[in-house]
Design a protein that fits this description.
Strand order of the largest sheet: 4-3-9-8-7-6-5
Helix content: 25-40%
Number of strands: 9
Radius of gyration: 17 Å
Mean pLDDT: 82
Number of helices: 10
Largest sheet: 7 strands, mixed
Length: about 220
């Protein structure tokens, strides 16, 4: 039997091509925040946008993929319940990162949805999930993680302090650029591919999660 293999360069090319194909969410102003309040203002106004009727919703669980995200549960425990993060959880398990992302952290995770992974070039995800590609998969996943807890307000502050761009150092080591586009938070990878945050500030016991609509691609070579 001939075993299919794929080079790091080919993986990077497939990932980068998919990342460049991302588009902005159709409704920037309906961003869901970790307070379970639909903010009708862009991220730039996140500090004040959640004040309306906050007391009434303070105890309401944040929903991701139809499941309640408990601030007392870890990143992995919460993600495992979300119907739209099943591919991410499977990848975390394949890369043996479950214990790490269940640890104390804190971590900021930009979590691609199943739909985001589905946009990768055909066969790319299957290759990444193979045992021999564990190193590449680990690099890909940890490129979506930043040490520390950065909510939308903190990210906005860094972007403003950077003159419109914040450079985030990922756990993988390569940088991500964070900017605002029509009020939406945009992440740009080292290849120029963009991913948009579609749900902000999902609190975890060991950090915070922002759901994104694209897979970010580091250099795998």
């Amino acid at each position: 039997m001939i075993r299919a293999t794929i080079s790091a360069a080919a993986l990077t090319l497939s990932l980068t091509a998919a990342a460049h194909a991302q588009t902005a969410p159709t409704a920037h102003t309906g961003v869901k925040t970790g307070t379970a309040v639909k903010v009708q203002t862009p991220v730039a106004g996140v500090n004040v946008g959640v004040q309306a009727d906050a007391n009434a919703t303070a105890k309401a669980p944040v929903m991701v993929g139809g499941a309640p995200m408990l601030p007392t549960a870890t990143i992995v425990a919460n993600a495992s319940k979300a119907s739209n993060l099943t591919t991410l959880v499977k990848a975390v398990q394949a890369a043996d990162l479950t214990a790490t992302l269940s640890g104390p952290g804190p971590f900021t995770v930009f979590a691609p949805t199943d739909e985001a992974f589905g946009r990768l070039a055909p066969g790319t995800l299957d290759q990444l999930l193979k045992p021999e590609q564990k190193a590449s998969l680990t690099k890909l996943l940890t490129y979506h993680v930043v040490a520390g807890k950065l909510d939308a307000a903190a990210l906005k502050s860094q972007i403003e302090a950077g003159g419109g761009t914040a450079t985030l150092t990922t756990v993988e080591g390569q940088p991500l650029k964070a900017t605002l586009e029509n009020g939406a938070l945009v992440l740009t990878d080292v290849g120029g591919g963009k991913s948009y945050v579609t749900q902000y500030d999902v609190e975890q016991s060991n950090g915070i999660v922002h759901v994104v609509n694209g897979v970010l691609a580091p250099k795998l070579g």
